[in-house]
Design brief:
about 270 residues; alpha/beta; Rossmann fold; seven-stranded parallel β-sheet; two-stranded parallel sheet; 11 strands; about 35% helix
Length: about 270
């Protein structure tokens, strides 16, 4: 059965995104150590931080600190998280002079940093962010559980009729962005193999809420009477609240020297038309 949820304003949407399921509360009750969110200032980061804090509080784990690390170019965003009980840390992860040792120790890390899809104009930057930075992070927190956001773009192109790739299919990235994202996975896998870092790779395609993402982009173009680009004729999407919850719960699946890998997307292949 499909349940329709209506939001009267953005505050109601944010409240929904920050409401944990009983399963998330149960899982986060078992966390050992604090929770550090790297790259918390992006589209998904603030809601993931609030969701984690709410779940931990509901579980009675007020002893666990949630740290949100970002440049925080928008001070208001950081202030809102502070008001929600989250400790914000202003830090530029791409600054070569920045010392990761100054960041808090933590037993659990969600790695959300990334040069995003559409990085073809600056491939070297994509590699620096997506592949080089994970090496620094893995060395700084070698004994943490790390849930690292990746992308389904690490898979090869397949016919729409195939239903897409599963975690058991071989990777075959097409283009610099996808290759750099596979580089991120390989760097974290190396940390798991050589230092015992516990890693979960989350291959996300593509998170949406009512303000951004594939569906919002199409809706804005239709509303404005503009043509919709159908170069990519199909897409997978997943609700941002669900994606954040799965990312947090994946921490407990990062237990072995072999990284835990999960495709995170919706149940259907949606046609742009």
């Amino acid at each position: 059965m499909t349940h329709t949820i209506m939001f009267t304003d953005e505050a109601a949407l944010e409240e929904r995104l920050a409401t944990p399921s009983p399963a998330l509360v149960t899982d986060l009750a078992r966390l050992e150590g604090d929770l550090l969110i790297l790259g918390a200032g992006g589209k998904m980061g603030p809601s993931l931080c609030r969701l984690a804090r709410r779940a931990l509080d509901t579980a009675g784990r007020t002893d666990v600190t949630v740290y949100a690390v970002s440049r925080w170019s928008d001070p208001a965003a950081a202030q809102q998280l502070e008001a929600a009980g989250i400790s914000t840390v202003a830090f530029d992860l791409m600054d070569p002079a920045a010392d990761l040792a100054s960041l808090p120790d933590a037993g659990n890390i969600v790695f959300m940093v990334g040069a995003k899809f559409g990085s073809a104009g600056a491939p070297s930057h994509a590699w620096a962010v997506n592949a080089a930075m994970p090496d620094r992070v893995a060395h700084r927190w070698p004994h943490a559980r790390i849930a690292a956001f990746s992308t389904g773009n690490v898979y090869p192109l397949v016919p729409v009729s195939s239903g897409g790739c599963t975690e058991n299919d071989p990777v075959g990235p097409v283009g610099e962005y996808a290759m750099s994202c596979l580089g991120r996975e390989r760097i974290f896998a190396h940390a798991a193999l050589t230092r015992g870092t516990k890693v979960a790779n989350i291959r996300l395609n593509y998170a949406v809420d009512l303000r951004y993402g594939v569906l919002a982009d199409i809706a804005h173009r239709v509303q404005a009477g503009e043509p919709v680009d159908i170069t990519t004729g199909h897409a997978n999407v997943v609700w941002q609240g669900y994606a954040n919850e799965v990312a947090l719960r994946s921490l407990l699946h990062a237990t072995d020297s072999e990284p835990f890998t999960l495709n995170l997307t919706g149940p259907e292949t949606a046609s742009v038309r």
